[in-house]
Amino acid sequence: MERVKVGVIGAGMAWDKLHFPAYQRLQYKYSIEAICDKDLSKARSACERAGLGWDRAFESYQIMLNTVDVDAVDVMVPIDETFEVSKDVLAFGKHIVVEKPVSASVSGAKELIKLSKKVKMLVAENYRYTEENRIMKDLMDGQAIGQVLSFTDVHVSDFESDGQDPSKFASTIWRKHPDFKGGVFLDSAVHHFAGLRALFGDIDSVFAKGMESKADFAPYSVINAIVVFKSGFCGQYSCLLKAKETQAPFAGLRVYGTEGEIFLENHECGFVNYSNRKGEHQAIPYQPNEGYFNELINFYDAITQNTPIASTPEKGLSDMLMVFDILKSIETGLPVSVAEEPAKRKRAAAAK
Predict the structure, then answer these.
(1) What confidence tens digit (pLDDT) does each residue in 187-233 have?
(2) 35, 246, 289, 313: least surrounded by Cβ within 10 Å?
(3) What contacts 70, CB < 8 A, 6 or more positions away?
């Protein structure tokens, strides 16, 4: 089997905790050829874990790409650096995986979409590839809970407390003091809405309220939004960044139908709970964190077999636009029509 040769840019926590374990399971599909990080010691340490010599560790990704033969590049850098790094990688003509969000700005995302037409580009949005979302989608498509009526999706975290733990993503300086619109709300909410759109389809409009935050990490510490989908139904989304759930089960995601309910406490719990009016209940097991593994399979198949990519940069842009539309609704106090991804706008215009 042909292996795709990969160069890595960014040897931080996303590589160490999320991407590298997936590549380890896919050694028959991928070979890691070189690793770059602005901190050379991190690149060297990552090379050692990947079985590479220090000659494959780089501080400059330009030097890495001019030195080592790779087919694709996995980009995992701070959000405000993603656009420039991805743009340079595309200029080398390499296939690219880039951590979400696809850019810190809408204009940057649109430019990357234009530049990526001749290569395969996947936005590493694992919520589009998780086992739990597939299970919930299958239950809804199979009418297990009848007609889907509404949902509540609640995300609770204590960012400042988490930031004191060096093993957590919240501890990174660029998340504590972001230099991009939306701060950690952008960083986390693109996940949430990628998952909701995968489950329920395209979003029509949103009306949101927020509690302002005095901290640097986000403009609001609490955001509540009514989300209306193009299918006509709506639900409630909540994101709290200065709280901690102290009672089990946690609020999580609940989907209500005419005949039953689906409940996912969180993405780490390992079970999707399904119940119906007959009193039947089922806890359907799944393996957490399979999204990273599944997205790399999709990327490999796209390169070698031209399989369609599920998490395209266009979808990544739509996730960003949804976050910015929520912020716009809070700022204006009005409902906001949600922008569609560029490809869908073109298809809709052609149909008229």
Answers:
(1) 999 999 999 999 999 999 999 999 999 899 999 999 999 999 999 89
(2) 246
(3) 5, 6, 7, 33, 34, 94
pLDDT single digits (tens) 276-311: 999 999 999 999 999 999 999 999 999 999 999 999
One-letter amino acid identity for 313? P
Contact 156, 214 (CB under 8 A): no
221 is written with which tokens?
């510490």
Domains plus CATH for the chain? 4-127+292-311 (3.40.50.720), 131-288+321-337 (3.30.360.10)
- Interatomic CA distance for residues 329 and 89, integer angstroms: 35
Residue 145 vs residues 59, 229, 269: alpha-carbon distances, Å? 53, 18, 21
Q: Kindly report the CA angle at 258 between 257 and 264, in degrees rounded to 5?
A: 25
Dihedral sign (CA 148, 137, 311, 290): positive
